[in-house]
Amino acid sequence: MDLVYADSQHFEFFENKVRPVLADNCYECHSGLNERHRSGLRLDSRDAILKGGEHGPAIILGNPDDSRMIRYVRHQGKKMPAMGKPKLSDPEIAALAKWVELGAPWPRATVVPTTDNYDWPKAREHWAWRPVKKVIPPNVPGARVRNPIDQFVAEGLREAGFMQPPEAKASIFVRRVFLDLMGLPPTPDELRYWTQRLGGDSEDELNDQAVSVLVDSLLNRPQYGERWGRHWLDVARYSDAGGWTQDNRSHPKAWQYRDWVVRAFNADLPFDEFVRSQIIGDKMGREAAAGTGFFALGPTYSSDGGDPESIAQAKSETLDDRVDTFSRAFLGLTVACARCHDHKFDPIPTEDYYSIAGVFKNTREGETPLAKEKVINAYHNARKPIDALHDKIGKSKKQPQSDEIKKQIANWQIELKELEAKAPLKFEFAHTLRDAGSEDMKVALRGNSMKPGKVAPRRFLRIVAGKDRKHFNQGSGREQLAKAVVDPTNPLTARVFVNRVWQHHLGEGLVRSPDNFGVLGQEPTHPELLDWLSATFVESGWSTKALHRLILTSATYRGSSAFDETSFASDGDNRSLWRMTPRRMDAETWRDSLLAVTGELDLQIGGGPVQDIVASNRRTLYAKVSRNAPLASDKFLRLFDFPIPRASAAKRTANVIPQQFLFMMNSRFMLDRASALSKRLERESDDMATRIARAYSLLYGRAPTDREQRLAKGFLKGSQPVASGLTRWQQYCQALLSANEFMYIR
What's the predicted TM-score (pTM) here? Predict the structure, then answer.
């Protein structure tokens, strides 16, 4: 993982999840706000926390379990917060413990305040706030150019002293583009066909027309929407089940949002409409309403007590999720860092946080029917007598229980059972958002909504929309908010999405902090290219498929992933794009590809989630996932770096841990795949050499070398029994399926 990006994530975690807890629960007694600090302890700076008070340091870096502060908030020994305040919620305690485990990151402020809190003219010098500028692509003599992308990249390579990489072999390119667009490898027949159309592996350059036809053919397959829908679901922190005990609301139809996202990508729904549907879809029609699941399916915290403070805290946490997810997903900003105080790094005052939060405070979760009116009416009509009987039974049970009343209740219960047996099942519906108010919100002082400050009018961010931005006064304000997000003068929305698409095709975004375009984030490696792509994206009608075509037909994307020691020594992070970065498949692509090559993959589209995806042949997209306690599917997915959907996830980590290899060696899933591949090879040929070649073609998209054929035959002809109980062919297949070459996209 990029270390700079990791540091910025840790700082954002502190500002989002830790500082609000400290400010709301600890600063009253342990900060500069109080002349006498209880126990001589201050908790408003990292140095003070490490110094500690009368009883020593409050925390031990990297060791939350032995840190006094963590033990006390867990009520192990002393109970904190004191002064009669309730115990912190489970998520708050977990956040503090995680912070200590990370080494207690505490960022230093970089924004210089003025009498207006920020030096706005100076703040606007940051690249992300500047308007998108479409410059003329540079002319680079001698460069291999397929479209303007290559002109920008070639100029950067030349300035850095690098050469453009040669084009990838046709067979490698075919496998790459299949996996990138569909999350599935090509079949041997598809590989052979497209390799020939591209000119064959012996040619130095790919056939341009064939590249375009290949890309278009894959964009038109339904599996494209499944693959790219999954990328967006990471951003939307999608889950089928709730999280903590204070976030356990049932969402049995969460999958309707997931399927809506898939349909939107397959239909090439313009991205501005895609955004609007997720903010105000309930006002755009029944189909678009499912898009508001983006917010409706997020954590909705409930009080673990009944006291006003607990209730207020739960509501504040829910709103914080909405603001954080909204700003990261669509704007690439960490607006939630301004919840308790003005943002320490970006020009986002606390008032702006509550301007956005106020919009979502005026919303409620609801249900939108997805069935025909006739079906909906039939259900409600059938429920009327059932509800009436329930009401009668409930009232009768509150009366003195005479024999006559008991007999009447028994008769009603029989009648109730008969009516429920005949009643139709509830119609399909989606969990959606709706307006429930139109009031502005007051700033919560230091993040505590029990201490209200001045009113924060609902409106967009000042750094984007200017000082005199319009008041959102229509209903909740969501319609005006959505309009502001996709306004062509907003420099962020197009840049952020274009960067996400580039990241999933090239391995890293042009901005390597994809959910933080602020000061703590990274600057673009190719700023003029990012702006050119963003402007072109908007000009295309916000077409995601047009953006794919542009990137995938470029010489930059078509480049070889071959390693060059000299280039690596100068640019190990490949910021100049001197080669195509090899990428490890994510959990979904790897599992789906395993099932595809063994011939077992079920390509059914859509529908409810699968409880245990490891025991199913459906695509991994359809696994039932949870925000907290891992379900059966989660245990597999998290082993291979699937993000826990408690917050928007812009990038996945790529950890290599022993448990992954143990899974490949010992799990029932891998043994079953080995058996299935072995049976497939046996069905397709009786000849050993042909089977070996077929296996290499299915898995790696190439023929085996003479040495690989020789080693395989030597093992397969062996006479000694295999200790695992597998046949030699099954063990050989397991080794091939577990190989790095299968797991990597080159």
Answer: 0.87
